[in-house]
Design a protein that fits this description.
With 514 residues, the chain is an all-alpha fold. It has 2 domains: 216 residues, Up-down Bundle (Growth Hormone, Chain: A), CATH 1.20.1250.20; 214 residues, MFS general substrate transporter like domains (Growth Hormone, Chain: A). The chain contains 22 helices and no strands.
């Protein structure tokens, strides 16, 4: 057996049984691999954050910029070429925006390609190549061009993980248990979000610049191993089904032969032109037509908006929270990193949220609406944090923890709603998306919503805080989330006033108006 055969890729001639195929295609192993990939991706993003300002100053040679009040204006001037401003703060903001722009641009493309590919593992491996290239470019980057390329590759790699990885998990888990599986991925994402900046800062302070990238390449090595070892369930079925259910296979073959004989004995007249029309008409051949069909689902549009608002809230804090705690409490880099822990810790509850929506199918509508609605009072109460006192520090941490709970209630139902929206489209119009379906493309479109939120969030929060203050920023954020509760209550799971159809074979509980 060659290397490709061991890894589960097809070889010339009759494919051989890969080693440990049951283990490598097990549901728990695929879930762990996807969760590790998501955690590693966001960990890499955060790992570089504390390194970037000093690296741009010392390795690239940019001048430091201590003025925060005009940072947004500096970024806009730089992007529009009105005035070249080669400063550390300006380029730090631009590099963050480039990551989000790459995620926005690559997500739908990668989603469409993944749906057409024979295996989801190949796109995952290509995403890993992009992540490794990004890390290498950032490691050796001595000019701003290498840093730009590195951040673009990082965004492309993130698009692969959050499009192909989630689609692979959907393929593996199916509808039953999907919510809990997504919950584990979301929990892994939170772990990576917290650990990245903290470990990056500690390693950089105690071990130097290259120790940070040593850890990065080590994690990429583990990720490479897991993605190479993984075998998709649909590819492993040829060996597992043959070995574990030989009698069933023989019985199926006999049933097929009997069915063929029955059809031969009693032929029925068929209108060939009509059957061809019915088969070909629903298939959307081009990616644009497929995307248009997906976006005609109000359930998917609401999910996309949910992605956008979640990203807007989280990235708003990325831009203003470190500056706020430094100005108010005098906290340095360590404190600025630790303050995000209360916001992320509640995501350990994501698997519980997933279990609830798997067990009680009617709950996603109310969880998402309640989560967004609860953001309103929590974000508004941020105005209570004003002074450098222990009371205000405790209040800030408590409010951030409550806000994290609100996002935790919303995240998992929103992701599973993407799957449900696509499945409803396919149930109503079989073969509507052709061979391969459109699951990865749907998650790619949703990632565009997340990327758009991460592009707008820092500017949204930074501009309001700069011009109207911390308290105004809080209630403005709450207003956006509160308004979002309305479409989630009305449309998640289908139109709220539409009564379920009577139970019948092949019918869905709710039908969609496209």
């Amino acid at each position: 057996m060659g290397l490709l055969g061991f890894l589960g890729f097809p070889e010339k001639g009759e494919p051989t049984r890969p080693k440990f195929v049951e283990l490598r295609s097990a549901k728990w192993f695929i879930m762990f691999t996807v969760s590790f990939a998501a955690s590693t991706d966001i960990f890499m993003y955060g790992l570089i954050v504390p390194v970037t300002p000093t690296a741009l100053e010392r390795k690239v040679g940019l001048s430091p910029d201590k003025s925060r009040s005009s940072s947004l204006i500096l970024v806009l001037c730089t992007l529009t070429n009105l005035k070249p401003l080669p400063t550390v703060q300006t380029w730090t903001s631009i590099l963050l925006a480039l990551y989000s722009a790459a995620l926005l641009a690559f997500s739908p493309v990668i989603g469409y390609v993944a749906d057409r590919a024979e295996s989801r593992r190949w796109p995952l491996l290509l995403g890993l190549v992009a992540l490794e290239a990004a890390t290498a470019l950032l490691c050796i980057g001595t000019n701003i061009g290498l840093w730009i390329a590195g951040r673009l590759f990082q965004g492309a790699a993130a698009a692969v993980v959050w499009t192909v990885g989630i689609a692979l998990m959907v393929d593996t888990v199916g509808k039953e248990g999907l919510g809990q599986a997504i919950g584990y991925v979301s929990m892994a994402l939170s772990i990576g979000t917290m650990a990245g900046p903290l470990l990056g800062g500690v390693l950089y302070e105690n071990g130097g610049y290259y120790s940070v990238f040593g850890l990065a390449f080590g994690l990429i090595g583990i990720d490479i191993f897991l993605r190479l070892v993984l075998i998709e369930k649909r590819h492993a079925a040829r060996w597992i089904a043959t070995e574990t259910k030989p009698l069933a296979s023989i019985e199926e073959k006999g049933n097929r032969e009997a069915a063929t004989d029955t059809i031969t004995e009693s032929p029925a007249p068929v209108d060939d032109s009509k059957s061809e029309t019915l088969e070909e008409k629903p298939v959307a051949h081009s990616p644009l037509r497929q995307a248009a069909r997906l976006l005609s689902s109000y359930r998917l549009v609401v999910s996309l908006w949910g992605y956008f608002v979640i990203s807007l809230v989280l990235t708003s804090f990325d831009s203003v929270l470190p500056i706020f705690v430094e100005d108010t409490f005098g906290w340095e880099q360590t404190g600025q990193g630790l303050i995000f822990i209360p916001l992320m810790v509640p995501h350990i509850l994501d698997p519980i949220t997933g279990f609830i929506i798997d067990r009680y199918r009617w709950t996603p509508r109310y969880l998402t609406a309640a989560g967004f609605l609860c953001v309103v009072p929590v974000a508004t109460l941020l105005r209570l944090v004003k002074e450098n006192t222990m009371h205000d520090k405790v209040v800030l941490c408590a409010l951030l923890a409550l806000l994290g709970c609100c996002i935790s209630m919303v995240m998992t139902p929103i992701v599973t709603e993407v799957f449900n929206a696509v499945q409803e489209k396919e149930d109503n119009s079989p073969n509507v998306f052709g061979r391969g379906g459109a699951m990865a493309l749907a998650f790619g479109l949703s990632n565009m919503g997340f990327a758009a939120g991460s592009l707008i969030g820092p500017f949204f929060a930074g501009f309001i805080r700069q011009n109207a203050g911390w308290g105004t920023m809080g209630w403005a954020m709450g207003l956006v989330a509160g308004v979002s509760a309305i479409p989630n209550l009305l449309f998640v799971g289908g139109w709220i006033l539409r009564k379920p159809k009577p139970a019948a074979a092949g019918d869905q509980p709710e039908s969609e108006t496209s």
